[in-house]
Amino acid sequence: MDPNPTNFPILSYVMAKIPSIKRSFSNAAAAFDVENPPSPPSEPQEPHFELSEKMPHLNNPKIISAMRRAVSDVAETRSVLKALGTRPDHEAVDAARFKLSELNAHSSRGSDELSEDCKMYKAVITLDEMHGTYEKMLGEAERRLERIYEAAVAGEGDNFIEEEEEEGGKNVVDAAEMNEEVARILKEAELGKGIERVDLSERKLRALPEAFGRLSSLVVLNLSNNQLEAIPDSVSGLENLEELYLSSNILQFLPDSIGLLFKLKILDVSGNKLLALPDSISHCRLLIELDAGFNKLTYLPTDIGVELVNLKRLSIQYNKLRSLPTSIGGMKSLKLLDVHFNELRGLPHSVGKLINLEILNLSSNFSDLTELPDNISDLISLKELDLSNNQIQTLPFTFGQLFNLTKLNLDQNPLTIPPEEVVHKGVEAVKSYMAKRRIEILMEEERKIMHELPEQTQASLLTRSTSWLNNFVSNVSGTVSEYLGDSPKSNADSNYLNQQL
Fold this sequence. Notes:
- Helix content is 39%, strand content 7%.
- The chain has helices spanning 9-16, 51-54, 61-84, 90-106, 112-153, 157-167, 175-178, 180-190, 304-307, 420-423, 427-452, 455-484, 488-499, and strands spanning 25-26, 87-88, 197-199, 220-222, 243-245, 266-268, 289-291, 313-315, 336-338, 359-361, 384-386, 407-409.
- The protein has a 10-stranded parallel β-sheet, with no helix packed on it. A two-stranded parallel ribbon has the order 1-2.
- Helix 3 (61-84) runs antiparallel to helix 5.
């Protein structure tokens, strides 16, 4: 939780007093001993903050006590997470589960080596599960602290304490069950009326009745802008559903049963608090648009690209993704990929298989994104590329082969290749520069090969190499001329390329 100091000045101050943790993800889990897991500190240091100084109007001792307990819970849970160390990434955990199942199925008894392998894979899985459990506890503790703070500021401290004492922090009234519109829809369904479209957006719904799963004729369901904390498993009964809108709620997870919506084409879960997407989402093979932006995703399902071959738009901006799964290369129909404002450290090599991709937004991954793969040139349909606000110093030497690229944003990068003066001239100048650079690199490699070969073989290779380079340079010269038109500059570029021989 990172409260905005402008909107939550006191809460921001309180949270600043709590020990923070830096969550990172890696494949390594060797340092974790599953048989002797790290234990939480026996006597965690109680965070100290001067409530009386910062909130002089706060004089309810019960609220102060509740806030201190909540702060202590947050601090203790963060300390445990810090003691656990780094969390294995999702692909590493999936691989460990797969290897473990293989060993259990085919291993011979009494093998010490296999036993050690099992321990290692179990350690990875256990460490991931422990992280998940404590991160859930941390989220609950932070939300409780938020609620206490908001109640104190609104002067509703007594009411808040009474509700917690009487109901244990649970809501008595199910807003969804009491909503007249929901009741009417369910009544019509019971009378046999085939309902195809339901719009329950902006109704302050806090839950969706299980009975909604009986609306089998439903094609479009809009539940956006509510206060939903969960979607019932009965959603799998919506066998004809094609569009599902769940944006701007407070969902922390989606049910696995969502993978049974085989006709689903559009899914919008943006603006929630999702930590992950269910692996079963890959079974929605007809999905065309998936918007999971503005959540807390740290990874995507490992096999998400294997079956979502019809997906055309994938929006996962404003999350905490550090990598994309290698299976993403299977999304052969993808036209838009928006991954801006994440923590990407790079792109998988398989991204070059997205031959229909037209728009790629990788902006604002800041200090994490430092380079692009060389096979970026395989994106033959790419028209728009946003790389702004990253730490890219050099574009791949194959960049000039993005022939259809017409819009390029390289702002706020420490670029050295191409130089700044070339970047300012626009996308065509950048492509032309990188095309020339590629030729220079290829020719330099050719010279090194010729220098290293015995003299008796150089004569025959020289003829072949010269012919090959002449054809290659002629093709690239023609491409550059197309970029620049029939201007004198175009002729100069063409002469420059031919002179490299």
